């Protein structure tokens, strides 16, 4: 007999790895699967390697997805702004527009986009960004609204090359913005702020070059404006050595083209100081400039410091400068090329008393001094300004002196210009005064007319009030009389009607009314069965509703009226 076919169990552990080429009669080369002891270990290791390979591929895909921001067509607006063309061949309008778009998109972007843009486009190119005319605004925006880590990295890179960048116009603006933000948030940029303060508080030749540099002195001015407390005090102490003070290097800021701007900034910040030491240092610098004003007013750049005191200085410093120095030196100062500007500003910002004193004690004290001022090529400008601000009496004296010199042919070309200016200004001022006076008279007349109208209206109202009351009383009396007459007529008509009725008609009418009221009473009592057997004189009214009580009262009143009319009718018949 043939053996029956026995099926093979493929899921059996012993035979799990027996289906391989070497045992199936194949000519293929033997594999590691022939080793039955190592087959399962190899299989596990193989699958683990495959899983690790899948993880690596997944990480690579994630990295590629992160790079999609640069490669696919759906780029965020921030990326599009930073990939815009900023080449130098573009027009100024196009470059400005691109720069503003970059700033706006950065301000509105989320933190992840800011990180990507900073790491991709800015981190390795901070120096070039700070030196660019349009891109340096992007760095300022990052310092202002970006993460503190980005701000600190930018400030560190700039500080590493501060000697080069501080003299560049655009990089200096980035440094000023950084200083503002560091002073607002010192806890976020402590190291950067300390580095900057250590640089600014140096007292050496390099810093003196920065004081007088066209661009670099702007950071000193910003420091004076922003710093506070001991940091400001230390900077003022260093600057005070170089302002109208004897020093070994003979270095002076007040007479320098750009150093004088630092002195002007000290004059500006003086009223804002509350610390006693800083205020005293600022005051000493200002007083020293006032004491040396005779020299400073005649210098090309230092005269702006005296003008700054006249325009923005405190009243104490103004009075000291004008009363003790400028009024005595007015004539010689006015005849100087640069001093004439100071003299003109003194006339503008001084009060009327100082101008009157100047006119009486310096200008009009002698005809020779007046003639000298008018005919001078520089002094004729402040003397014209003086005529403009004088009172009418002094203006008349001024014109009289001018006409006298003109009649004697003592006016040169500058004097003739002053004469024409004074005549035109005088006539214009008189004309304007007439117009102003006419307008004031019109306003006064209008006010008087308005006051008169108001008074008349008040009087009319006072007169109308009693007449109105009288009319009201008369109307009330007429209405009262008409009502009395109507009542009297109604009574007469009723009496006539009663007289016309005979006794039978009256009785019939009374019977009809009695029947009607009886029906109403029955209807009412049907609604209230509890009141049927009670006495009429002691009706419990609180038990009845309001409408039922009103119906009962009306019925009783009508019965009384009928009885009264019956009695009157019977009395009339008897008469």
UniProtKB/TrEMBL annotation:
Polar residues bias locations: 21-31
Keywords: Coiled coil, Repeat
Keyword Plastid: no
One term under GO cellular component: cytoplasm
GO biological process, one term: post-transcriptional regulation of gene expression
Domain of life: Eukaryota
Pfam families documented for this protein: PUF (PF00806)
Pumilio repeats: 121-156, 288-323, 325-360, 364-400
PUM-HD domain location: 57-426
Single GO MF descriptor: mRNA binding
Coiled coil: 437-464
Keyword Coiled coil listed: yes
Region (Disordered): 12-31
This protein's name: PUM-HD domain-containing protein
Organism of this sequence: Paramecium sonneborni
């Amino acid at each position: 007999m043939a053996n029956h076919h026995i099926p093979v169990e493929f899921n059996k552990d012993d035979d799990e790895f027996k289906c391989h080429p070497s045992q199936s009669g194949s000519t293929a080369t033997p594999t590691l699967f022939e080793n039955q002891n190592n087959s399962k270990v190899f299989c596990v290791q193989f699958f683990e390697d495959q899983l690790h390979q899948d993880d690596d591929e997944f990480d690579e895909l994630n990295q590629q997805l992160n790079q999609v921001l640069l490669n696919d067509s759906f780029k965020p607006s921030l990326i599009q702004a930073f990939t815009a063309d900023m080449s130098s061949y573009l027009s100024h309008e196009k470059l400005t527009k691109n720069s503003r778009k970059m700033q706006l998109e950065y301000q509105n972007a989320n933190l992840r986009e800011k990180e990507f843009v900073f790491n991709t486009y800015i981190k390795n190119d901070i120096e070039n960004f700070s030196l660019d005319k349009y891109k340096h605004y992007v760095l300022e925006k990052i310092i202002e609204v970006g993460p503190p880590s980005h701000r600190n990295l930018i400030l560190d890179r700039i500080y590493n090359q501060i000697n080069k960048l501080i003299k560049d116009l655009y990089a200096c603006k980035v440094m000023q913005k950084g200083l503002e933000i560091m002073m607002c948030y010192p806890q976020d940029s402590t190291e950067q702020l300390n580095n900057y303060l250590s640089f600014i508080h140096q007292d050496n030749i390099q810093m003196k070059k920065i004081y007088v540099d066209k661009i670099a002195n702007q950071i000193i001015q910003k420091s004076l404006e922003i710093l506070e407390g001991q940091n400001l005090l230390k900077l003022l102490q260093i600057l005070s050595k170089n302002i109208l003070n004897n020093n070994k290097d003979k270095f002076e800021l007040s007479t320098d083209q750009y150093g004088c701007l630092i002195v002007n900034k000290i004059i500006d910040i003086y009223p804002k100081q509350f610390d006693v030491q800083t205020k005293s240092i600022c005051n000493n610098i200002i007083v020293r400039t006032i004491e040396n004003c005779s020299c400073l007013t005649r210098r090309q750049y230092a005269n702006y410091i005296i003008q700054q005191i006249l325009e923005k200085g405190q009243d104490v410093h103004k009075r000291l400068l004008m009363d003790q120095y400028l009024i005595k030196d007015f004539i010689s100062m006015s005849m100087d090329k640069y001093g004439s500007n100071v003299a003109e500003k003194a006339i503008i910002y001084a009060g009327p008393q100082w101008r009157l004193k100047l006119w009486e004690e310096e200008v009009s004290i002698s005809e020779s001094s007046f003639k000298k001022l008018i005919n001078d090529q520089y002094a004729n400008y402040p003397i014209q300004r003086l005529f403009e601000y004088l009172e009418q009496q002094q203006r008349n004296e001024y014109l009289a002196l001018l006409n006298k010199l003109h009649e004697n042919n003592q006016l040169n070309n500058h004097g003739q210009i002053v004469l024409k200016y004074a005549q035109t200004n005088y006539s214009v001022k008189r004309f304007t005064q007439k117009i102003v006076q006419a307008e004031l008279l019109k306003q006064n007349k209008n006010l008087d007319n308005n006051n008169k109208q108001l008074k008349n209206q008040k009087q009319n109202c006072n007169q109308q009030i009693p007449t109105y009351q009288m009319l009201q009383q008369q109307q009330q009396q007429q209405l009262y009389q008409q009502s009395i007459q109507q009542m009297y007529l109604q009574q007469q008509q009723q009496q006539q009607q009663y007289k016309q009725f005979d006794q039978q008609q009256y009785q019939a009418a009374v019977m009809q009314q009695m029947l009607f009221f009886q029906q109403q009473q029955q209807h009412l009592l049907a609604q209230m069965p509890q009141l049927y057997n009670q006495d009429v004189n002691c009706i419990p009214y609180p038990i009845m509703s309001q409408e039922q009580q009103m119906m009962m009262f009306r019925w009783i009143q009508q019965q009384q009226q009928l009885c009264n009319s019956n009695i009157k009718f019977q009395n009339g018949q008897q008469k």
